[in-house]
């Protein structure tokens, strides 16, 4: 069973509940009526916020979804022990391949983060395991607005990461779809709804969303709010508030100006802590969507197909080797431990 995604939310909470010492892991658990990933995490880890450990360990069972079914057998993994990185991130002076990323996107990409980030280490490791590997290096540009256009579009750098892919099947004319190829996913990125703890707002199905006021910062992708089965924006079924910063979204939430903030789990957890909103803002159990992070390359790059093959083949080898799981688990534990 593939266990690579087990940790993304695994460390989200800071409080351990009574009974944690008796928690069992590395076992198979049969889902009971009323069980959720959150409730199983509370039983087995003493911390409901560690549900991502179970989520990522059971992608084959869940089929990419988030809801459990009574009678399912779910593997309950143990958190990985902290481990030293395999090697320093390679920096080749005479690189045959240069990949562009930016800082301030922890835990995925950050020069001050161990191994310069989770996505950075995954990319480095995948390229090391790719067929006929070539020397490569990582380049940094902290103005993310420059990455796709003009830097990658004009091929100032060969590839970039980590980027979300729009729904290119439904909207191939989208500029990002029209101009770029996307690798196989580096990892999933759950998008959550964060609400005030004292409100009755719940999300059990999409039927609960129309009429709501949601906040997502300007410049953030909104494809998940207007996909084929959700025409929330096209049909004006929701009010979408888009201030300049994530902090402004959480300020609006606390002022009662919106019903929920919708951002990825890491960003939301970070803002709750840094803005002093613990116990005042909580995530709703069910993710609103599950996006994916990719490596991208311009469709006009003369070696685009070869470079994509290297990344994809390397990622496949990385997963099969077991290193993928270790890398993901280690970085996510660092992220949540820092929030504590």
% residues in beta strands: 15-25%
Largest sheet: 10 strands, mixed
By CATH, the architecture of the largest domain is named 3-Layer(aba) Sandwich
Instruction: Report the uncertain regions.
Output: 1-23, 82-93
Query: What is the quaternary state of this protein?
Result: single chain
Q: In CATH's first tier, which class of the largest domain applies?
A: Alpha Beta
Name the average pLDDT. 86
Write a compact overview of the structure shown.
The protein is α/β, with parallel strands linked by helices and 340 residues long. 28% of the residues lie in helices and 18% in strands.
List keywords for this structure.
single chain, 340 residues, alpha/beta, Membrane-bound Lytic Murein Transglycosylase D, Chain A, D-Maltodextrin-Binding Protein, domain 2, 3 domains, ten-stranded mixed beta sheet, two-stranded antiparallel sheet, 12 strands, globular, disordered N terminus
Structure in words:
The protein folds into three domains: 57 residues, Roll (Membrane-bound Lytic Murein Transglycosylase D, Chain A); 138 residues, 3-Layer(aba) Sandwich (D-Maltodextrin-Binding Protein, domain 2), CATH 3.40.190; 102 residues, D-Maltodextrin-Binding Protein, domain 2 (3-Layer(aba) Sandwich), CATH 3.40.190. The chain has ten helices and twelve strands. Strands 3, 4, 5, 6, 7, 8, 9, 10, 11 and 12 form a ten-stranded mixed beta sheet that branches. Strands 1-2 form a two-stranded antiparallel ribbon. Strand 3, helix 4 and strand 4 form a beta-alpha-beta unit. It is globular, with a radius of gyration of 20 Å.
């Amino acid at each position: 069973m593939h266990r690579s995604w087990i940790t993304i939310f695994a460390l989200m909470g800071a409080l351990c509940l009574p009974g944690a010492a008796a928690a069992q892991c590395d076992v198979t658990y049969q889902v009971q009526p009323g069980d959720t990933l959150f409730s199983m995490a509370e039983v087995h880890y003493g911390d409901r916020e560690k549900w991502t450990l179970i989520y990522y360990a059971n992608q084959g069972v869940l089929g990419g979804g988030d809801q459990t079914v009574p009678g399912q057998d779910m593997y309950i993994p143990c958190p990985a022990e902290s481990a030293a990185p395999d090697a320093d991130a390679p920096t080749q002076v005479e690189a045959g391949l240069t990949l562009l990323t930016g800082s301030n996107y922890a835990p995925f990409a950050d020069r001050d983060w161990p191994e310069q980030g989770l996505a950075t280490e995954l990319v480095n490791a995948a390229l090391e395991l790719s067929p006929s590997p070539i020397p490569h290096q990582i380049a940094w540009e902290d103005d993310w607005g420059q990455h796709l256009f003009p830097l990658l579009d004009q091929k100032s750098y060969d590839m970039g990461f980590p980027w979300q892919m729009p729904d290119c099947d439904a909207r191939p004319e989208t500029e990002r779809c029209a101009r770029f190829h996307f690798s196989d996913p580096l990892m999933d990125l759950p998008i959550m709804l964060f609400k005030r703890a004292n409100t009755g707002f719940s999300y059990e199905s999409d039927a609960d969303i129309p009429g709501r006021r949601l906040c997502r910062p300007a410049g953030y992708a909104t494809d998940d709010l207007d996909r084929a089965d959700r025409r929330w924006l096209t049909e004006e079924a929701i009010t979408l508030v888009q201030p300049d910063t994530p902090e402004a979204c959480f300020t609006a939430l606390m002022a009662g100006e919106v019903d929920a903030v919708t951002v990825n789990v890491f960003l939301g957890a970070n803002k709750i802590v840094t803005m002093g909103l613990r116990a005042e803002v909580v995530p709703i159990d069910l993710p609103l969507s599950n996006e994916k992070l990719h490596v991208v390359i311009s469709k006009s790059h003369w070696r685009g197909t070869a470079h994509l093959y290297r990344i994809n083949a390397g990622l496949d080898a990385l997963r099969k080797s077991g290193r993928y799981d270790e890398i993901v688990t280690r970085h996510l534990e660092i992220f949540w431990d820092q929030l504590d």
